[in-house]
């Protein structure tokens, strides 16, 4: 999904979340691994190590009311992902905060991969002016992951 950054910025409201940079690897591994394990059923340590090694323009920890609500990686081009929303967090607050970071980065367009199961994220994105750019289908032999709370970076990261 994608939208012009200017259009998204006009409709964003402050979600009231705190944002801090994700600490370099391996310091951040424990809490990111815990969220990944809860959402996906496995840790993504190698992916975090790779992304924190300079691939992502910005990696942020999102907190609400003093608790970790999720994390997001945001590229200089405005792509958000991976984005993980802690199971007990408000998905709309987390995605809105990540999108605010993307817009503030100065990109002309904001984009993210939103699984169809992520109904709250999908509704939020549509209300902000996002549209589907390229539909993707994930086929798996058996179910895995909580795709309501996890947005991948690219299909290759699935």
Structure commentary:
By secondary structure, the protein is α+β, with helices and mostly antiparallel strands. The protein has a single domain, classed as Aminopeptidase (3-Layer(aba) Sandwich). Helices cover 34% and strands 22% of the residues. The chain has five helices and seven strands; from the N terminus they run βαβααβββαβαβ. It has helices at 5-11, 29-40, 45-55, 91-104, 119-127; strands at 2-4, 18-21, 58-64, 67-74, 79-85, 109-112, 150-151. Strands 1, 2, 3, 4, 5, 6 and 7 form a seven-stranded mixed beta sheet that branches. Helix 1 packs across helix 4 (91-104). The protein starts with a strand and ends in a 7-residue tail after the last strand.
Quickly describe the structure.
This protein has 158 residues and is an alpha+beta fold. It has 5 helices and 7 strands, in the order E-H-E-H-H-E-E-E-H-E-H-E. Strand 4 and strand 5 form a beta hairpin.
């Amino acid at each position: 999904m994608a939208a012009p950054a200017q259009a998204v910025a006009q409709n964003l409201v402050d979600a009231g979340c705190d944002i801090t940079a994700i600490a370099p690897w391996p310091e951040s591994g424990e809490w990111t691994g815990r969220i990944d394990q809860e959402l996906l059923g496995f840790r993504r340590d190698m992916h975090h190590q790779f992304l924190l090694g300079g691939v992502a323009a910005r990696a942020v920890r999102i907190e609400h009311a003093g608790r970790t609500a999720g994390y997001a990686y945001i590229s200089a081009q405005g792509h958000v992902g991976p984005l993980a929303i802690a199971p007990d967090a408000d998905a709309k607050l987390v995605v809105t905060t990540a999108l605010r970071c993307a817009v503030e980065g100065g990109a002309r367009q904001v984009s993210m991969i939103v699984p169809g199961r992520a109904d709250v994220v999908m509704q939020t994105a549509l209300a902000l002016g996002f549209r589907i750019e390229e539909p993707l289908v994930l086929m798996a032999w058996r179910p895995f992951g909580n795709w309501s709370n996890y947005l991948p970076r690219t299909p290759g990261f699935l």
